[in-house]
Each structure stands twice: as C-alpha cells, then as structure tokens.
Design goal:
By secondary structure, the chain is mostly helical. 57% of the residues lie in helices and 0% in strands. The protein contains seven helices and no strands.
Length: 129
C-alpha cells in the first residue's frame, strides 16, 4: 500500500544526478579497466586489514587510482606497454573489415573517428588488411 511504502521509504523524492565527485562515470572501455583496478584494491583492502596504510579510505584509493591511470596515459607508459605486446592487451576482431565493407557497399555514409593511437591497435585488430 502507499502507506507502507511511505512508512518504509519516506515521502521525500531525492533526485540524484549521479555525477562526480560522488559518482565516477564508467562509460568507456578505458574506464572499465580503471574500475576493475579499483575493485581489486577494494577487495584487497577488505581481505587484508592492516596491509593498507592507516587512514587510507576508499575515496583516497580511488583518487590514487585515477591519478596513476592518468599519469600512465599522459606520459606514454601505457602505450609503450601495449606496443611491446599488443596480443596480450588487444583482441583481434575478424568482423571489423567485413562490417566496414558492408557499410560502404550499402551506400551509407560512414564517419570513423579515431585518435593517434589507432595505428598500433588497427594493425593488431585487423592484421590482414
């Protein structure tokens, strides 16, 4: 009943924006890896009390992960590691070329946006072009 719901949850509507700093957006493949690293650290902290420095809370751990990931990306460390062994980090996708060919043959206008990092990835993902 409505009374039960109000009794349990109250009658105040909270419209949370789910934005930073209270929430982190996980909306790219890059941010998925960052979230996974943070989840592993949370698990480590929970399972190993005392192994993380006193006073380091989850918010501090997240900020440290963000800073470390940004640094690796900015200073080129991440790209260098992937370039050394792309097969370890990038999955070949045999369906990309047929998909792009299908789009071209259908007459659809296609706009492919990439960044300067694409050559390393493209040569590994589609090695037979």
């Amino acid at each position: 009943s409505k009374e039960d719901k109000v009794g349990t949850y109250g009658n105040t509507l909270v419209r949370d924006s789910f934005d930073e700093p209270d929430y982190a957006l996980i909306d790219t493949l890059f941010s998925l890896a960052e979230a996974y690293l943070f989840a592993q650290l949370v698990d480590f902290k929970d399972c190993n009390p005392g192994k993380i420095r006193e006073g380091v809370d989850y918010a501090r751990m997240y900020k440290d992960v963000r800073a470390a990931v940004d640094l690796c990306h900015r200073d080129g460390t991440l790209k260098q590691m992937v370039a050394k062994d792309p097969g370890r980090y990038i999955n070949e996708d045999t369906m990309i070329v047929p998909m792009l060919e299908m789009l071209r043959e259908s007459g659809r206008a296609t706009f492919l946006v990439t960044n300067r990092y694409v050559v390393l990835r493209w040569n590994h993902i589609v090695p037979h072009t």
